[in-house]
Specification:
Number of helices: 1
Largest sheet: 2 strands, antiparallel
Strand content: 15-25%
Shape: globular
Helix content: 10-25%
Order of helices and strands: EEH
């Protein structure tokens, strides 16, 4: 398990889970355009960029 903080909320998430999936699983909205569960992750629209500290 990993501990991450999104908008001040500390979350325990499984190792390997993406930040986007962790946010979605905890009701935190990160806007996306190119994310779709039936497609390979692409990241082309760059709308869901996040800042990583540490």
């Amino acid at each position: 398990m990993a501990t991450i903080t999104i908008n001040g909320n500390k979350l325990e998430v499984p190792d390997g889970m993406t930040v986007l999936r962790a946010a979605q699983a905890n009701g935190i909205d990160i806007p996306t355009l190119c994310d779709h569960p039936h497609l390979t992750p692409y990241g082309g629209c760059r709308l869901c960029l996040v800042e990583v500290e540490g």
